[in-house]
Design a protein that fits this description.
Shape: globular
Number of strands: 24
CATH architecture of the largest domain: 3-Layer(aba) Sandwich
Number of helices: 15
CATH superfamily of the largest domain: Alpha/Beta hydrolase fold, catalytic domain
CATH topology of the largest domain: Rossmann fold
Strand content: 25-35%
Structural class: alpha+beta
InterPro entries: AB_hydrolase_fold, CocE/Ser_esterase, Galactose-bd-like_sf, Xaa-Pro-like_dom, Xaa-Pro_dipept_C, Xaa-Pro_dipeptidyl-ppase/CocE
Largest sheet: 7 strands, antiparallel
Protein name: Hydrolase
CATH class of the largest domain: Alpha Beta
Pfam family, one: PepX_C
Helix content: 10-25%
Keywords: Hydrolase
EC number: 3.1.1.84
Oligomer: single chain
Length: 576
Amino acid sequence: MAEFETFDAGGRTIHIRKDLRVPMRDGIELAADAYQGVDDKPRPALVALSPYGKELQALALTTPPQRRPSPMWDGCIEAGDIARVVAEDYVHVIGDLRGSGASGGEHIGNYNAGGVSLGQDAYDFIEWVAAQPWCDGNVGMIGISYFGSMQVLAAAERPPHLKAIFVSGGHYDFYETTYHGGIMWFMPRAAREGRGGDSGWAFTDGVKSRMLETYSPEEIAERVAQRLKDPDVAAWPNLVHVLNYPKHHEAWFDIVMNELDGQWYEERNPITLAPNIDIPVYLQIDQGRGWTMDGTIELFDALRGPKKLDIGPYPPMQSRPFIEEHDKMFRWYDYWIKGIDNGIMDEPAVQVFVEGSRERVDGDQWPPKDVEYRSLYLRPRGKLSTEPEPMGVQYAAPDGFYQAPLTVTDKVEILKWETPVFEEPTEMIGTGAAHIFAELDQPDSNFIVRLWDYAPNGKRQLITTGYLKASHRELDEERTTEGNPYHPHTRAVPVEPGAIEEYVLRLYPFANTFLPGHKLTVELSNGEPLADEHNALLPPDAFHLPVGRPVTHKIYRDAAHHSRLVLPFTARTAGE
């Protein structure tokens, strides 16, 4: 068998080393493919690691990039533009994680936290690549989403030859990857099961359940029975199935069984490992996927070495195969790996694209401008006002909605409040909060808030979202500040039906200028439409677990109950 396979990329020949065997310290071998130019000289390498399968990543050479809502969009082709990497004179090395693709070993638990650390494997993989005659000893990493998270796990292990990383669209807080405000999100299931526009994991023998390996059959049966007492779970066929037949989808079983945050998630949270990272890190994220944007900013704040934060424009779902952000990535690596003084470190640490004005704002931190948190109060007749309601509840009667479960209707009831049209450009950059005073007639429900920018022609764009399971309403008082609420999610406290409670939702980070003639509209519901302007940009399974029982919600916004939005107005309006 010849040492190389060749591929003609539009007149440029690429040499491919297929099925390289990379030894790990415990004797397991990982499989990898290496793509390079025809001159067999040492080059710096960019490493991509995931369980999605290196053969799937090879489609980047033959499949034109697709954007949502194209049915050809596959969320797992994320290792980057192979031809571009080779053209920039790097070796592109794509590997299969243990237990996946052509690699040996087994995968235990989500992110293999129950078995060998993925960071440990990444360390061994990177050091092996650096020692090959076709590598000059300098290594970076490449890839979006899972591949991005792997970069952080690798950097935290400090492999000597890893010189810098460039992370686009990573996910970090693994509790927030599946539970938004305590509400289960189905997109991670899509990646694991190969649903909703994702080919899924390429594990060769499944993923062994850490829960099944940790607890006795009797303990598992007891825990499953307890989990099925949640009517939201009990009403959803897929979850009933996975809880009763856990070996069918063992990794998803582990996540469903761990609905509270804590050590099970924290030990696999890259943000916890960030203080170990001392190499240069460039973080890039696009607006519209709030939980990843929130985690990206939290990671940026935790890093101690040279770092950049780049927040790009809406929409959030980039092309697959992933090709975006390569210009920025090669500037980063040309500086830190090839030693080319291109001025990138003379530029501000933080760059933010502001929707609406479509301007870029620079700064040394997030948010890049001084922010003043101001309140917009929910008022009768669907109005948002800078002044609170002066009337008592007997005159300013609560708004309300009754939401029947999906077993009865697919109609999602939505309450709306909106501002008058803005008379001058009004800029907001940062996180926010929604304070909702509500009375429920059930022990639990979901609160889902979505903020929209409405143009005079009726078109709208999603600005930010907030989620909170009512039983997860407890706040972390030490971390919570005005406009920045934090929930520990370490226990669920049922709601007392008939009691008025304040629910504080964290609004994910955003940057938007409301132009003259535009309105801000806030929507409140306990579910979400399965298809609208925003959801059409996401894979089909990217929605949250609906409430499984009928619930009546009364929303109080009177003189005694100041339901409101707390929003990050910049110190001056745009255009001044």
